[in-house]
From TrEMBL:
Signal peptide: 1-29
Protein name: Glucanase
Record family assignment: Belongs to the glycosyl hydrolase family 6.
GO MF annotation terms: hydrolase activity, hydrolyzing O-glycosyl compounds
Catalytic-site annotation from UniProt: D150 (proton donor), D295 (proton acceptor)
Residues annotated for substrate binding in this entry: W74, W195, N222, W264, K289, E293
EC number: 3.2.1.-
Listed GO biological process terms: cellulose catabolic process
Keyword terms, alphabetized: Carbohydrate metabolism, Cellulose degradation, Disulfide bond, Glycosidase, Hydrolase, Polysaccharide degradation, Signal
InterPro entries recorded: Beta_cellobiohydrolase, Beta_cellobiohydrolase_sf, Glyco_hydro_6_CS
Amino acid sequence: MRRPTLTGVLATLAMIVPAVLLGPSPAHADPLSQTSGFYVNPYSSPASWVAANPGDGRAAAIRTSIAQKPMASWFGNWSGDIATAVRNYVGAADAVDKLPLLVAYNLPGRDACGGHSGGGAGSVGAYDAWAASFAGAVGSRPAVVVLEPDSLGDFNCMSQSQINDRTGMLSRAINQFRSKAPNTWVYLDAGNSGWVDATTMAQRLNQAGVAGARGFALNVSNYFTTGENSNYGNRVANELRRFGYSKPFVIDTSRNGNGSNGQWCNPAGRRLGTPSQLGGGAEMLLWLKTPGESDGNCGVGGGSSAGQFLPEVAYKMIYGY
């Protein structure tokens, strides 16, 4: 881990982040200034597929356009011992002085209303313990963590008691990172520009403890354009001022090159978006969903399961057809 030098990157951010995004100074050290770029996982699903299929006619394009780009790795109940899994991942990134992107996805009843990515921890207590282990495994090493996609987007199928449990778990998870991972920026998921109005989302973010996080994340695993999400993010940030603070945001650009056609589950004709970078209408544009990984048994991913890598979908996403 490169020692903090708060020049350079911070000066760049000051020029490229819209003024509305600049909230109070973060409580944690800046992981950007401690690393030399984003981590590329050599064992991501597209990289593993390319390594196993070198003679496939699609392999070269998938290697260059997807596998060699920095993107997030997701951690959930499939990860085995979460402390070991996270420690190994952030350790590998730290060894090469790069910033790892992680997505925590293990809330009880996650995707409760969507239904394609169900599962998660078995109870509130189990999730609290999982989040504490996750944060402890990151420790003092620099990282960016996006916390629980879909968690605040759809409450329609949930009781008030379930909503209270969920926001409580999110708030406690944020506090775990604040206390155990001082060089981590946590962004709480806030849906996307086509889902919940900005006023409602700001209320939900506040209830879920976003005041203790670095900021919020938009468009995770969705397709809305960067511009649409940037406008929405600025509205949410402005609404948060009603609670006495504001926050920056990041946007998932992994699959938004052609925008949304109104479908969220493996729609055809989507395209890769801007690779992970600083600025661009948000604090960062990040590949959070891995291009080519299925959203579930739907659309052009019919017959697949959520998270399964589909090389033909990945290949078509490179060219937008």
